[in-house]
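An example makes the point: we let one protein speak, the chain in one-letter code, the fold tokenised, and here it is:
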Amino acid sequence: MKPLVVDIEDLKLLAGPNSRGHWRKKASRVKREREAAHWTLLDAKRPPLPVVVRLVRIAPRSLDDDNLQGVFKAIRDGVADAYGIDDKDRSRIRFEYDQERGAPHQYGVRIEVRPA
């Protein structure tokens, strides 16, 4: 089966564990990110489990490795929600992280799902 590749445009992932701000604003952002991943994958023809999910952050500047993984927490949860499983079940779903340089003011997320 071919891998599923979906893009979520105009989704600006902030610096994960290092982001600051009011708790309500952060909760709203996390909910929006999680739902974006969930509904995008729910509408797509997903490969059956077990799968490997590659999450790619598209932004003008790059992050270091630990922050890169941290910014994807809500996206990762949304992907697991679409499959109806817990994201810690490594026997059924495994995550990889990457980033690409976008044009100035270009932000987004690419989700690639392939059979394991």
